[in-house]
Amino acid sequence: MIFLDSTVLAAAGATAAWLLFLRAVLRNPWNNALVCAWLCALLVAFGLYFGLLEYGAEATRPLPLWARISATTQHVCTVVGLYSGYSAYAFLVHEHREAVRRTVRQAWVLAATLTLMVIPAVLADPGDFTAAHLGRYSESSLAAGYLVVFTIYAGVIVGALAKTSWTWSRRADDHWIRRGLLAGTAGLLAGVLYFLLHAAYLTLAVTGHQPAAKEGSLIGWLLAVAVPLSLSGLTAPLWGPRLSQVRAWWWAYHAHRRLHPLWAELTGAFPRVRLSLPESRPGSRLRTPSPRAGRTARALARWDERWSPLHRHFDLRLHLRVMQIWDARRALLGHCRDADYRRALSESTLPGPRRAAHAEAVMLAAGLRRYRAGQSPGEPGGHHAEPPRPGSRPPGGCGLAGAGRQVAPRHRTA
């Protein structure tokens, strides 16, 4: 399938990168590193687009003029794009004056490289250019020379970028910047391997040892790995924090739902500890005055309490839910027995913190049964556990989160 071709996959990754950078550039057009990174992704993508235009052109021998122009433009866009990537890293890791000095110096190297590339490509006759395009470098002279210049320059730039990315990945404090630099290093190393193999093919062809395997089938997939991985690492500071926000929301929502059985049992017995919290937007919009408004309101309230994922500030709602559970637990301790806790602790076969969570759940379930049966408190309260520290997360399956799975079933069978 054409969609699984290595050039198509690389072009898709580069397109996604420059579109993502475009939004950031429009918001901050004076950030030199951001503009250079956008130009890098854009030019690499256009170089791949021109490469896609040449598909099927080799069926015509020699190559038509438009195919030769497209191939030359592809390599020019790639070289300028790599220079833009070098400039982006320069502005990222150096102060402005030093970054300008390095980019100007590299611009002279780029100008010399483009001259040594374009002149042989223009002077090469159609047959010479076609032989180089098809990988028969031993039958080509001028066009093969222009590919040698391209390979040397691109390989050196990609290697320098890989070294810079690896060096600064160990110094970055931000998690997503460090991860992006490491991903970029992996992609750039794949690019280095791509150009090394390309140079090996050129060298073997010049020495008269034409390899049996086709160049494209051997190193084509390195391009599909190098381009998307490098550019995704470069864009990681843009989309990474949003992914962290989604992960934090999912943790809060999952914990909020897991705590609901425990919260419903304890605050149902002591409704005074409940706090009136804002509804979700769907709940507030669906609440309409009607004869059945009371039943609808109760159903929407139950939906908001347990299922609705559309609440804002889920971390605050989770914190308040934990506090309400601890307030209700404190009110229930007069009906709890420490003997229930010790007996459940000795009988439990669960490991580590799960054992204590199970024992506390048994104690609270017994206390709830006494409270709802109207039994007097009798002896003083049961086991006094320490409340969680502000900002701490209960480990999965233990503490209050684990107790929530134990209290409700035991009470329902009572």
Question: How would you portray this structure in words?
Answer:
With 414 residues, the chain is an all-alpha fold. The chain has helices spanning 6-27, 32-53, 65-93, 96-123, 126-133, 142-169, 175-206, 215-269, 281-286, 293-306, 314-332, 338-347, 352-373, 399-412. The longest helix has 55 residues, at 215-269. Mean pLDDT is 81; it is low at 390-414.
Structure summarized in a few sentences:
By secondary structure, the chain is mainly alpha-helical. The protein has helices spanning 6-27, 32-53, 65-93, 96-123, 126-133, 142-169, 175-206, 215-269, 281-286, 293-306, 314-332, 338-347, 352-373, 399-412.
The average pLDDT score comes to: 81
Radius of gyration: 33 Å
H/E topology pattern? HHHHHHHHHHHHHH
Largest sheet: none
Distance between the termini: 62 Å
β-sheet strand percentage: under 5%
Number of helices: 14
